[in-house]
């Protein structure tokens, strides 16, 4: 449907084109996600695997809404600038970005399969597989967020943490792991941008009239 294609274009611009989010793109993304979730209630649309991925993409913006709500609530109680409040808002936004980027790449890959391998990939492009892929993505990002939350908590309590011995090494593991994961996420983000551009470049020239 044209509305879903417009929504995907908006999300690609928001997460894979713009270098950072801003108030305008965030607001448009939230409104587009609300409209898309309503649109996907149609049985005709929701029966497709691509629609399952798009539905999960729209649901990811709930994290943005929760981040905004947490900022307002914590700010109302005078703790909006505390490290804990800042970390919570940042991690919610990070989770939204990572889930959205990976799901957008899944949609692009499925579009590639539909264009170039329609019959060969039919058994892979099922609603069940799409739901499983969405669950795996959410679980991986949730584990990533948990690691960053543990690291932030240990940093906040570093004054009372042991600095030597086995316990000291144990307290340093989350910090090292989160640093490595942050570097990996940055590299993966660049690769996803390149892969998405290549996929849609191939699709565009394959369907353009010669």
Structure description:
The chain has 210 residues and is an all-alpha fold. It has one domain (1-206). Helix content is 81%, strand content 0%. It is built from eight helices and no strands. Helix 7 packs antiparallel against helix 8 (165-207). The longest helix has 43 residues, at 165-207. The chain is globular and about 55 Å long.
Helix and strand layout, with pairings?
Elements: H1 2-17, H2 23-39, H3 43-46, H4 49-59, H5 61-76, H6 83-116, H7 127-156, H8 165-207
Helix pairs in contact: 1-2, 1-6, 2-4, 2-5, 4-6, 4-7, 5-6, 6-7, 6-8, 7-8
What are the key terms here?
210 residues; receptor; mainly alpha; transmembrane helix; G-protein coupled receptor
The quaternary state of the protein chains shown equals: single chain
**Total strands:** 0
- What radius of gyration results from the CA coordinates? 20 Å
- Uncertain regions spanning at least 5 consecutive residues: none
Q: Which of globular, elongated, flat, extended, rod-shaped describes the shape?
A: globular
How many H/I helical runs? 8
User: What share of residues is helical?
Assistant: over 70%
The residue-averaged pLDDT reads: 85
Kindly, what is the distance between the CA atoms of the first and last residues, rounded to a whole number of angstroms? 25 Å
| Percent in strands | under 5%
> Main beta sheet: strand number and arrangement?
none
| H/E topology pattern | HHHHHHHH
- What number of domains? 1
Would you tell me the structural class of the helices and strands? mainly alpha
């Amino acid at each position: 449907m044209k509305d879903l294609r417009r929504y995907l274009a908006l999300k690609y611009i928001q997460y894979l084109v713009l270098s950072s989010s801003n108030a305008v793109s965030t607001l448009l993304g939230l409104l587009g996600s609300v409209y898309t979730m309503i649109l996907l209630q149609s049985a005709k649309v929701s029966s497709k695997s691509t629609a399952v991925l798009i539905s999960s993409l729209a649901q990811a913006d709930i994290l943005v809404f929760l981040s905004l709500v947490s900022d307002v609530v914590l700010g109302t109680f005078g703790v909006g600038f505390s490290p804990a409040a800042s970390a919570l808002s940042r991690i919610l936004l990070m989770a939204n970005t990572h889930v959205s980027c990976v799901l957008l790449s899944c949609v692009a890959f499925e579009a590639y399969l539909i264009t170039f391998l329609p019959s060969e990939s039919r058994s892979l492009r099922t609603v069940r597989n799409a739901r499983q892929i969405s669950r795996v993505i959410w679980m991986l990002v949730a584990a990533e967020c948990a690691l960053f939350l543990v690291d932030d908590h240990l940093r906040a309590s570093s004054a009372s943490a042991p600095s030597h011995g086995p316990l000291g090494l144990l307290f340093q593991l989350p910090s090292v792991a989160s640093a490595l994961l942050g570097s990996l996420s940055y590299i993966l983000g660049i690769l996803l941008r390149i892969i998405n551009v290549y996929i849609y470049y191939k699709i565009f020239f394959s369907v353009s009239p010669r």
